[in-house]
Amino acid sequence: MSEVPIEDVLAVHQLYGRQSHAIDSGQAARWAATFTPDGEFVSPSYPEPAVGTAALTAFAERFHAGCAESGERLRHVVSTVEVRSGQTADALRALAYLQIVGTPEGGSPRLHRLTVLDDELVRTTGGWRVRRRTVHREP
Questions:
Q1: How many whole angstroms separate alpha carbon 81 and alpha carbon 98?
Q2: pLDDT tens digits, residue range 13-49?
Q3: pLDDT band for position 12 (50/70/90)?
Q4: Where is the SnoaL-like domain (predicted)?
Q5: Domain map (residue ranges) of the chain
Q6: Edge-to-edge, what's the strand order for the sheet holding 35-42?
Q7: Mean pLDDT lowest for which of 20-29, 46-55, 69-78?
Q8: What is the DSSP string of 71-87?
Q9: Residue 130's Cα: distance from chain center in Å?
């Protein structure tokens, strides 16, 4: 396995930051744009995968609407990121922990989920994008 250039590692961290801030603030199209046009989001927390920009945008809209209905502010906290080389120079694999923390109005924060992100990333003209994200829930 070859060493991943530090510029690419930093770009992946920036990508995860953009994703977290976008979905937490209700910017569904911005969140979906961090995936490739045919990108996939697969999670056991949801009945079926979201595939493609339109489905990813709709997923993020539903997620944010659910938060608004519950009166709880959710935050995606990505940590312990490991970026590995992919099968080509324009592909990477990233593993990370994702905590989803919720804070009700006037309440205390609580951990909703602790998951592992397993991402296939590809280099595009706009930078690194998620081609496929598989979420694994902790038991």
A1: 10
A2: 999 999 999 999 999 999 999 999 999 999 998 889 9
A3: very high
A4: 6-134
A5: 6-137
A6: 50-51, 35-42, 127-137, 110-124, 91-104, 72-85
A7: 69-78
A8: TEEEEEEEEEEEEEE-S
A9: 8
Element (H, E) at 11: helix 6-24
H or E element, residue 109: none
C-alpha distances out from residue 58 to 3, 5, 13, 62, Å: 36, 34, 24, 6
Q: Bigger pLDDT: 133 or 47?
A: 133
pTM of the model: 0.92
Considering the segment(s) 6-137 as one domain, its CATH architecture is: Roll (3.10)
d(CA 51, CA 9): 25
